Amino acid sequence: MDTTDEDNKFRLLREAMVDRQLRGRDITDMRVLRAMTKVPRHLFVPEDLWFRAYEDRPLPIGEGQTISQPYMVAKMVQSLELMGHERVLDVGTGSGYQAAVLAELVREVWSVEIIPELAKLASSRLAELGYTNVHVVTGDGSVGLAEHAPYDAIVVAAASPSTPQPLVDQLGPSGRLVIPVGDREGQMLRRVRAQGMRPASESLLPCAFVPLVGREGWTDGDLRSTIF
Known about the structure:
Blueprint lengths: L2 H21 L6 H9 L20 E4 L2 E3 L2 H10 L7 E5 L5 H7 L4 E6 L2 H13 L5 E5 L12 E6 L8 H5 L1 E13 L2 E8 L6 E8 L12 H4 L5
Parallel strand pairs: 3-4, 3-6, 4-5, 6-7
Antiparallel strand pairs: 1-2, 7-8, 8-9
Helix pairs in contact: 1-2
């Protein structure tokens, strides 16, 4: 299969993913659908998994981490209610796929990854694909990235035992935070809206994510008996 045929094959798989898994469910934001159609998801997983990249499931990316199910990425991004002008904080860079989707939708993305090897690979991959509005930082995403706050939106691609207060504090006026919160049995995807001194929180859907490791998430000790 030459490069053109391979590119066409992945384009068709990507279009089918959007039609069946996203548009066929409750993803209605046309900007999100276009972004998911454009970003080459297969380039964010190991090469031996390229032809599984558009399946309706998470996939391993190394270091005990996963790339989230396409539907979950779309649901989380849609829940941020993005218009295009925003600065967004992406917690849990992983492969960089969600950061790429966000980069198609907003002005600027700051992405934090606690595992240095993943951060380095994601940064290189995003640069190769031309995403100049994404900045990948190695650090503890559970405490956010205060030096670039406030953010119009924050999305967390890992499960926290509670909503980290530093992330709420780094939201700008009317900012939105989308995060999975729960225990080792499963979590609830929640959206927090900044509303002065009393942020409003709502449940979106049940989910299951790898743990958010860090000062405001799970510690190594917590994880010894935790199965995700």
